[in-house]
Design a protein that fits this description.
- The strands form 3 sheets. A 6-stranded mixed beta sheet has the order 1-2-3-4-5-6, covered by helices on one side. Strands 7-8-9-10-13-14 form a 6-stranded mixed beta sheet. Strands 11-12 form a two-stranded antiparallel ribbon.
- The termini are far apart.
- It is built from 9 helices and 14 strands.
- Strand 8 and strand 9 form a beta hairpin.
- Helix 5 packs antiparallel against helix 6 and helix 8 crosses helix 9.
- The chain is α/β, with parallel strands linked by helices.
């Protein structure tokens, strides 16, 4: 299998996963151009997987369907994604040729967000980023934390394929929260080296995120203490810790 992140807009990734013949799935095509260019290089899309309704993740669907009218479109049950041909929900299995993905509901960033997990890959959309997580536009802190907990429980060798190249800015925030984390320091340097070329910082192993991502580490002493200092009060409830951390990140400027 060949995994490829196709850059789109300023910092989006459209993910493709293809076989030796070039047949493959396309995840979150926010614009059609990168996929059409990949098709010129041998990619033959056989399905579209959509994690949520935001335009930078589905904006290219109509143009791709104009080019390949029979493409199945797997998407959450949300009327804001009218192009869906198959509605996918929690516990469903998506089977496309030789690929099989488990669907997980991920409320928080949006109320209907889903993720696809299979073949050692996690297409997490805007729920989990490297060293960060998505903003809560439609969900609550409790929902988002539950979603992240579900992802944290996946096999640690899972490759996280998220929707944006936010790793460098997320690393700057994570280092403020958890400055003594040696694994985080190593990951930040890796990110800086990759972006200087530039190369994508993704995918990244879930094991690395568990060691470095403060939003997956709300139960650690270091993250709890940092969130408490920022909130100006001692926080013990893990949802409160997560909520304080997310508010802090929302206003953070490196």
């Amino acid at each position: 299998m060949r995994l490829q992140p196709l850059p789109a807009f300023e910092d989006n990734y459209i993910w493709t996963l293809s076989d030796a013949s070039g047949r493959g799935i396309v995840v979150d095509p926010g614009e059609a151009g990168p996929v059409l260019a990949a098709a010129e290089d041998g990619l033959t899309p056989i399905a579209l997987l959509l994690t949520h309704h935001h335009a930078d993740h589905i904006g290219g669907v109509d143009a791709l369907l104009a080019r390949w009218p029979d493409l199945p479109v797997y998407a959450p049950d949300d009327p804001r994604i009218p192009q869906a041909t198959v509605r996918a929900g929690d516990g469903d299995t998506v089977e496309i040729a030789e690929w099989r993905f488990d669907v997980l509901t991920m409320p928080g960033h949006t109320r209907s967000h889903i993720a696809f997990h299979g073949h050692g890959h996690l297409f997490s959309g805007d729920t989990l980023f490297s060293l960060g997580c998505g903003r809560m536009f439609e969900g609550t802190a409790a929902q988002m934390l539950t979603s992240l907990d579900r992802l944290a429980a996946l096999p640690t060798d899972t490759l996280v394929c998220c929707g944006h190249e936010y790793s460098r800015s997320n690393a700057a925030f994570a280092r403020v929260v958890d400055p003594d984390n040696a694994a985080l320091r190593r990951r930040e340097q890796e990110i800086l080296d990759m972006r200087s070329v530039p190369r994508p910082t993704l995918p990244v192993a879930l094991a690395s995120e568990l060691a470095c991502n403060p939003f997956l580490r709300v139960d650690t002493d270091a993250v709890r203490a940092a969130a408490s200092r920022q909130a100006g009060t001692a926080l013990t409830d893990r949802v409160d810790i997560f909520a304080a951390l997310r508010r802090w990140k929302d206003g953070f400027r490196a």
